[in-house]
Please model this.
Amino acid sequence: MDKTIRIIGVPMDLGQAHRGVDLGPGAVRYAGLSARLRALGYRIHDRGNLPVPVRDSLPADEQEPFLSAISRVCADVYQAGCEAVADGCLPIFLGGDHSISIGTIGGVTDHEPCGVIWVDAHGDFNTPRTSRSGNIHGMPLATLLGSGFDELVDVGRLGAKITLRDVVMIGIRDLDAAERERLRLSGINIFTMRDIDELGMAQVTRAALELLGHHRRLHVSLDLDGLDPHEAPGVGTPSPGGLTYREAQLLMEIIADTGKVSSADLVEINPILDHANSTARMAVDLAVSLFGKRIL
Model:
C-alpha cells in the first residue's frame, strides 16, 4: 500500500462546558493508533497537535465566550486539512470537541466536495438562536451547512462548505426541541437509533452510502458519544441507547469496503471520564476498521 495517513491533533475544549476533551489526542495516540494503522501497510505522518489556547487564558467577558479563539483554531485546522489533501495524504483529525469539524470538513472539501457520514448521538444542528446552552460543539453541522456565527461559517472560505446532499447522519437520538424542528424542516438525510433498531446497521449503512454514491471521497466524522455509554464511557455528553461496539464496527467495515474513505474525525473523547482509556482504545479499533482492517 502506497498511502500516507497524516494524524493531526486538535486538543480543543472551547466548544463545550466539560473539561478534559483537550486530552483526547494524547489518549488516542497512547492507545496505539499509529502502530495499528502502520500494521495495515500505511505510512504514518503524525504532525503533532495544532496550537490551541488554554481556555483559562482567554477573556471570560466576551459576548460570545471563546468564539474568536474557536474561529482561529478552526482556520488552522482548515489549512491543515487542505495541505494534507494537496500532499496526497489521508488525514485523521483527533479532537477535541466536535466543533473542530468546522475546520476539518471545510479543509478536506476545499478542492472538491466529498460525502460526509456524521456519526453522533446529537444533531449538532443548533444555531446561536436555537441553542439552549450556547455551546458551539452543538452547532458544527449547522455551521458547515451555512447557518450560525458568521466568523465560523466563513472559516477558510466564505459560506457553506457542504450541502444537504453531501451528508448523512447516523445514530441520532438526543435532540433539543428547536433543533429537532430545524432537522425536520431541512430535509437532511438522517438515520436515528430507531431506524437502526428497525432496519439493522447493515441496511442503514448501505442506504447511507447509496445516498452519497455521487461522491468519490468520503469523510467520516465520528463522535464517540454516538456509541452507548456502556461501550464508550469517556465522553462528556453521554446519551443512553446508542450504538453497540459491534454495530459501530459493522458501520466502519461496510464504509471501508467502498474504498472511498479519504479522511476522518475522532472527537469528544474525554480521558478524565474514561475507564482505563477504554474509549480511546475503542476509537482506535473503529479507525483501523474504517481504514481497511478485515476479519479475514
About this structure: The first strand starts at residue 4 and ends at 10. Strands lie at 4-10, 43-49, 90-95, 115-119, 167-172, 189-192, 218-223, 261-267.
